[in-house]
Amino acid sequence: MKKVLNKGFLFMAVLLLFALTACSGNSSEKAGKSASKDGGKVSAKFGVVSYMSGPGAAYGEAITNGFKLAQKEINEKGDVHIELAIEDSAGKQEQAMSAAQKLMSDDGITAILGPTLSTEMNVVAPEADMNGIPIMGTSTTAEGIPQIGDYVFRNSLPEALAIPAALKKAVDKYGAKKVAILYGNDDVFTKSGFDTMKKAAEDMGLDTLTIETFQKGQSDYNAQLTKIKGLKPDLILCSALYNEGAVIMDQARKIGIDVPFVGGNGFNSPEVIKIAGKAADGLIVATPWFADKDDTKVKDFVKKYETEYGKTPDQFAAQAYDALYIYANALKNAGSTDRDEFRDALAKTKDFPGILGNFSFDKDGDVVMDPTVLIIKDGKFQQFE
C-alpha cells in the first residue's frame, strides 16, 4: 500500500510540473512577449545602445536625454508603458556589438534603439535582423542602413538627402564653382558622407580641386589645409564628427581660410560651436531639426528639455525624442509586444506628427522628410536664407 501511495504522489507531482511548465511556456515561446498588458495598456521594454563615454559622448548624452524625456511623458499619458534598458557603446564597434548582444539575449526586449554611429550600426543591425528584433537608428545617416534588413529602420535624415540640400543652398547663395573636399577615411559614417559630397558636387557641375583625408583623433590638419588654401576653393566640403570637424575649422581660420564650410550630419551639434568658437561661423548644414522654429510643438519641447537638462536640445536629442514616440505609437497600434507584430506596426508609420515634422517610413524603413538648411552665424545655428 505504501508503494502504491508513493507512486500516486509521484504521478500527481509529474502532472503538476507539466501543468506549470505549460503555463509558463507561453512567456518564453516567442522572444519579446514577456512584457505585459495591464488593463489593456501594453507595457514593453526597449533596449538602447548609445555613445555614452569617450570623445563623442555629447552625442549619446543628447540622445539618451531625448529618450528619457519622451519616456517620462509617454508613461504619464498612460496609453502604453515603456521601460528603457540603456547600454554604453563608447563609439566602438566591438563594444556596440557586445552591448547589443546583451540586450538581444533578454527575451523581454521588444526592440532596440541605436546604436549612435553608422559604423556601429553596420555590425549591430545584421545581428538584430537575423534574430528578428526590430532596431531603429536615431542618428545613423550613412547610405544603406535601412537596407540591411526587414527589421532595420531609422528616423534620422540620411546624408544622401541632407548634404545635397546644404550644398545646393550654398552654391545658390555664393555662386560657388570650385570646391575642396576633406573627410575622415577611417569611419563608415564619414566615408559615406564623402561619397555623397563627391557625387553631389559632380551632379551640380562643380570643379573638385582636391580630396584630402584624415583619421579620427587627429589633431594637426595643417598639411591638408595649407594645400586647400593654395587652391582657393569657393567652398570646403567636410565630412567629420564634431570633434575633428571643429578643430579643422579652427585651424582653417587661423591660417587665413575664410570660405564657408559645408558639413555632414556630424557637425549638427552645439559642441562644434563650443569647441571652435567664432571659427564655426559660416558652417552650413542640413537637418530636420531647428530649435528656433516658430512651431508650438518645437517650442514646448525646447522648454521642457531646457527645464529638465539645463541646455537647448540639439538634433540628436530631438530625433531620439521623436523616435521613442514613434515606437510608442507602433506599440499601441500593435497592441502587443510580439516582435513581429511590433515590426509590422512600425513599418506602417505614416505622417506621424513629431517635433521634426510629419514623419513616414518608405518601403525600406528609411526616412521620408524634408531637411532644413542652417548656417552658424554669430555663434549659433540660424536658418540659412
Concise summary:
This protein is an alpha/beta fold. The chain has 2 domains: 40-157 and 294-369, Response regulator (Rossmann fold, 3-Layer(aba) Sandwich); 160-287, 3-Layer(aba) Sandwich (Rossmann fold), CATH 3.40.50.2300. Helices cover 46% and strands 21% of the residues.
Would you spell out the secondary-structure blueprint of this structure?
Elements lengths: L1 H28 L7 E2 L2 E10 L6 H21 L2 E9 L4 H12 L4 E5 L4 H13 L4 E3 L14 E3 L4 H16 L3 E7 L3 H16 L3 E8 L7 H10 L3 E5 L2 H13 L6 E3 L6 H7 L6 E5 L8 H14 L5 H20 L4 H9 L4 E3 L2 E5 L5 E2 L3 E6 L2 E4 L2
Parallel strand pairs: 2-3, 2-4, 4-5, 5-6, 7-8, 7-9, 9-10, 10-11
Antiparallel strand pairs: 1-2, 11-15, 12-13, 13-14, 15-16
Helix pairs in contact: 2-11, 3-4, 5-6, 8-9, 11-12
Task: Give a structural overview.
The chain is of the alpha/beta class and 385 residues long. The chain folds into two domains: 40-157 and 294-369, Response regulator (Rossmann fold, 3-Layer(aba) Sandwich), CATH 3.40.50; 160-287, Rossmann fold, CATH 3.40.50. Helix content is 46%, strand content 21%. It is built from twelve helices and 16 strands. The strands form three sheets. A seven-stranded mixed sheet has the order 8-7-9-10-11-15-16, with helices on both faces. Strands 1, 2, 3, 4, 5 and 6 form a six-stranded mixed sheet that branches. A three-stranded antiparallel sheet has the order 12-13-14, with helices on one face. α3 packs parallel to α4 (118-130) and α5 packs across α6. The model is unreliable at 1-35 (pLDDT under 50).
